[in-house]
Amino acid sequence: MPKERILVVDDEPDMLSSCQRLLSRSGYEVKVAPSGREALRMLKEESFDLILTDLRMPEMDGMEVLRLSREQSPDSAVIVFTGYGTIQDAVMAMKSGASDFVTKPFSPDHLLLAVEKAAGNLRLAAENRALKGQLEERFSFDNIVGRSPAMREVFDAIRKIADTNANVLITGESGTGKELIARSIHVNSGRKNRPFVPLNCGGIPEHLVESELFGHEKGAFTGAAATRPGLLEFASTGTFFMDEISELPLNLQVKLLRVLEDRRIRRVGSNREIEIDIRLISATNRNIQQMVKEGVFREDLFYRVNTFVIHLPPLRERMDDLPLLAVHFLKRYAKSTSKVVEGIAPEVMSVLKSHAWNGNVRELQHVIERAVALTTENVVRLEDLPDQLWRGADEGTGEPSPEERSHFDLPFKDAKEAMIESFERKYILKLLSKHKGNISRAAEGSGIDRRSLHRLLVKHRIEASKYA
Ligand SMILES: Nc1ncnc2c1ncn2[C@@H]1O[C@H](COP(=O)(O)OP(=O)(O)OP(=O)(O)O)[C@@H](O)[C@H]1O
Ligand SMILES: [Mg+2]
């Protein structure tokens, strides 16, 4: 892949030539402009991935270049140079959309690192756009996302059996998407314009399940003040979804079996039989076969409900799906909160990939929802994840985090600088959580003076208030 195209804008000729030399040596394609006005002319004619501009220049200053380049090419990233001690300028620039700043005078390593970081983010945004494209094109079906072989089998199964009347049993741990699949089968069947009626068998007291299912006549039992049809009646001509079917009491298992065989029901307290036509989809997160062996689930009912079985493996067994799912939820929550969140930082993805996900897709969904709500940037960063997810990942063990491991591939000087950056970041984050976001106390507790601490916060784009 060709490296990024960079435009450097500065009124000092020496700066221009040394930046040009340095960056071209690292493989970037570099052009230079000695003034803001010249830069604008060039921006109109060609496109750049990255723009490096000095802030203080005669005539048109860097803020103006920043503003106009955001207009001309919103996808490119801008890094600004600021003089020592002009942190306010940097803050302003970042607020106006600069992606980073570098304080003058800077070492070649420092500049390269900033450029690499910005270029990395651009590539990340491009990758995320590609993932979103895949989501739209190939790897989703009715909002069900997946590219793992297991999920592709699920898609095939839905296509094959949706438009039949076969009873379907969906198995899988909690949060793997059983209800989502059940609804998708319904909307892809000939019954799609008829009701989809769910009942969570574990969710209501045992003595009420029967009247929920079958309905009752007025006065059938104490409390039955009026005649009420049951859910099976409501579901007639549509789909009945029995969630947690393993929790159905044994006496009702017999009754349900009879309904499936005779296609008739009787309300509690009534002699009249009502014909019904339902398609049954059931779900369970327990091992029903085992329950059959133990005699707590009827074998004859088991064979009735499992005409077709769809098994959803736990998320940890189909990690291929994780990046797509994460981006899917990112898109959804960014949209619903009207936030611009372009992607997920690579180190976040590594942490997500190494988590066990006992709560499966639902857990991932909540993690992303929370991260989107918390992030103050256009990408999700480590500190937007719940503590237990990422602190464990790089603490205590003394092992380098995935992000730090990637530094080992850099030349020594860059690696050292990158390590220092990630150390700074971690140190500050810990410090802030310890002092609950109170900057004065954090400064005191660490021996960093307030101004330097403030500078580090801006540099790492950390908001102290998040830790309050
Ligand atoms: N493959 C997937 N693609 C997109 N979203 C998914 C996928 N799998 C699950 N989800 C989402 O995850 C959440 C949990 O899914 P769902 O409620 O279907 O799980 P479940 O297996 O029924 O869990 P439980 O056993 O706890 O009832 C839902 O918000 C669902 O939309
Ligand atoms: Mg469910």
TrEMBL record:
<keyword id="KW-0805">Transcription regulation</keyword>
<dbReference type="GO" id="GO:0006355">
    <property type="term" value="P:regulation of DNA-templated transcription"/>
</dbReference>
<dbReference type="InterPro" id="IPR003593">
    <property type="entry name" value="AAA+_ATPase"/>
</dbReference>
<keyword id="KW-0808">Transferase</keyword>
<feature type="domain" description="Response regulatory">
    <location>
        <begin position="5"/>
        <end position="119"/>
    </location>
</feature>
<keyword id="KW-0547">Nucleotide-binding</keyword>
<dbReference type="GO" id="GO:0005524">
    <property type="term" value="F:ATP binding"/>
</dbReference>
<keyword id="KW-0067">ATP-binding</keyword>
<dbReference type="GO" id="GO:0000160">
    <property type="term" value="P:phosphorelay signal transduction system"/>
</dbReference>
<dbReference type="GO" id="GO:0016301">
    <property type="term" value="F:kinase activity"/>
</dbReference>
<keyword id="KW-0804">Transcription</keyword>
<dbReference type="InterPro" id="IPR025943">
    <property type="entry name" value="Sigma_54_int_dom_ATP-bd_2"/>
</dbReference>
<dbReference type="Pfam" id="PF25601">
    <property type="entry name" value="AAA_lid_14"/>
</dbReference>
<dbReference type="InterPro" id="IPR011006">
    <property type="entry name" value="CheY-like_superfamily"/>
</dbReference>
<dbReference type="Pfam" id="PF00158">
    <property type="entry name" value="Sigma54_activat"/>
</dbReference>
<dbReference type="InterPro" id="IPR025662">
    <property type="entry name" value="Sigma_54_int_dom_ATP-bd_1"/>
</dbReference>
<feature type="modified residue" description="4-aspartylphosphate">
    <location>
        <position position="54"/>
    </location>
</feature>
<dbReference type="InterPro" id="IPR009057">
    <property type="entry name" value="Homeodomain-like_sf"/>
</dbReference>
<protein>
    <submittedName>
        <fullName>Histidine kinase</fullName>
    </submittedName>
</protein>
<dbReference type="GO" id="GO:0043565">
    <property type="term" value="F:sequence-specific DNA binding"/>
</dbReference>
<dbReference type="InterPro" id="IPR002197">
    <property type="entry name" value="HTH_Fis"/>
</dbReference>
<dbReference type="Pfam" id="PF00072">
    <property type="entry name" value="Response_reg"/>
</dbReference>
<keyword id="KW-0597">Phosphoprotein</keyword>
<dbReference type="InterPro" id="IPR002078">
    <property type="entry name" value="Sigma_54_int"/>
</dbReference>
<dbReference type="Pfam" id="PF02954">
    <property type="entry name" value="HTH_8"/>
</dbReference>
<dbReference type="InterPro" id="IPR058031">
    <property type="entry name" value="AAA_lid_NorR"/>
</dbReference>
<keyword id="KW-0418">Kinase</keyword>
<dbReference type="InterPro" id="IPR027417">
    <property type="entry name" value="P-loop_NTPase"/>
</dbReference>
<feature type="domain" description="Sigma-54 factor interaction">
    <location>
        <begin position="144"/>
        <end position="373"/>
    </location>
</feature>
<dbReference type="InterPro" id="IPR001789">
    <property type="entry name" value="Sig_transdc_resp-reg_receiver"/>
</dbReference>
